[in-house]
């Protein structure tokens, strides 16, 4: 039975990206009926899962912490593509989409993914153990990038509204990509041991790591299928963008909810990967995924959207409002207290999940 499930998994992860590209070719540039919209949405969702599956195959080949990096970058490429697609087609109404999506990604990763991972680990082993040095460095980088890109624009005076002046935006973009690049160098070269899972004596903690890594041929195939899945996600997001915005408006939700929908969509597979790692007592991998994804979301999205703003019409609104600044501030404080000891328990998990629930509530009802 297990062999059958593995064969089915291998089959759908190969066929879905190919079929999704075919659906994209048929729907691109056309006004499509509701049935096709639903089909495209299903292929979009499953393509995200397929993309992360193939990223996991590549990750297993290259090992940690490179594996977490591959997953984070793959998810962020999807996110950036969705932001660009929806911003380009949304006009002035989408001027705050990048801010809303990046902030949603930060809140969902630093509270949602971290909270769920700690909850699963604490329920199974009472205490979740991870490396405070590596996780603390990741959190510090996320906090700095969030402040530079999302908080400062609210208080600058060179440009009207919560937006950067051109020189300020250029600095924020360069600082974001530089800090992210430096973090990747630290994570993968200079201090790689800070980001490796903490060894425990719990049964089953390392079982999954004893599986043989995929062959070079399988890794190359997964790389090709990963690229195909990403192309499908980008294109189908463009096809689905009118339906997403219409659904948000019909539900009476604010325009900022579009960014939350995007973040929920692209982070769902990574959330599953983080929870699976926590179940195997590899909480450090979960932390790498959570904070690495938040960091990549800012470090790659802000420079990309800064370049795209050169030809996009309308202002680029990046500054957060008072409510969101308060949520970001308490998230940084709580995450710092969680990370410092290198150990967390059930209460800390529930605190993070409560902050995530508060963010989702305020996104639907500001």
TrEMBL record:
Q: What is the lineage of its organism?
A: Bacteria, Bacillati, Actinomycetota, Actinomycetes, Streptosporangiales
- Secretion signal: which residues? none
Which InterPro entries does this chain map to?
A: Alkaline_pH_Ca-Antiporter, NaCa_Exmemb
Keyword Transcription recorded: no
Membrane topology designation: Multi-pass membrane protein
Q: Per the UniProt record, which residue ranges are transmembrane? A: 7-28, 34-54, 66-90, 102-123, 135-155, 167-185, 218-237, 257-277, 289-311, 317-339, 346-364
Q: Which Pfam families match?
A: Na_Ca_ex (PF01699)
What is this protein called in UniProt? Sodium/calcium exchanger membrane region domain-containing protein
Name where it's found: Membrane
Listed A to Z, the keywords are: Membrane, Transmembrane, Transmembrane helix
Q: Cite the Sodium/calcium exchanger membrane region domain residue spans from the record.
A: 34-188, 222-362
